[in-house]
Design brief:
The protein is built from five helices and no strands. It is mainly α. The chain is elongated, with a radius of gyration of 19 Å.
Length: about 160
């Protein structure tokens, strides 16, 4: 059982961590946004809201960009797995691309409807489920290409 499980673990913790971060950041953004829209009472005691906002948007862009890259890598790594998995990863990639596009196009939260923010939460949760399924499958079925193929981190071997 000398299968490259460490790879899968690395990949799992890396991706899930990004996903988790993304979901938390988005949730925070959503909370801030809903709080702000509910209190529109012009109390300017908080840190520059515009600044916080553009930072949060930048963060969301950056996270979705990273998830996009990772998703592409996953997609090329799982060639040869059952198509149900490939479809789910493709679907995830499309979702992430859409989220990335929304965040990139937005100049402020006013540009993002609250539904975009709540949906992005739900969509990322679904992607996380897909990845868990994929990883469960990989624990028992490592693709042959991973044993010989480009996914092996050869450069790092000591």
């Amino acid at each position: 059982s000398d299968l490259p499980l460490p790879q899968i673990e690395v990949f799992k913790t890396g991706f899930n961590q990004k996903l988790q971060e993304g979901r938390e950041k988005l949730h925070q953004m959503w909370l801030d946004w809903s709080r702000r829209s509910s209190e529109e009472s012009g109390d300017e005691s908080s840190a520059e809201p515009e600044e916080m906002e553009s930072l949060a948007l930048l963060m969301a862009c950056s996270i979705t960009q990273q998830l996009q890259t990772t998703c592409c890598k996953i997609l090329s790594a799982i060639q040869g797995l059952p198509s149900s998995f490939q479809d789910k990863v493709k679907q995830s990639l499309t979702t992430i691309e859409e989220l990335h596009a929304s965040f990139s196009a937005a100049n402020s939260f006013q540009d993002l409807s609250s539904s975009v923010l709540t949906q992005s939460q739900r969509k990322l949760a679904v992607i996380q489920e897909y990845m868990e399924e994929l990883l469960d499958y990989l624990k028992n079925n490592t693709p042959l290409s991973w044993l010989v193929g480009p996914f092996c981190p050869r450069e790092e071997e000591v």
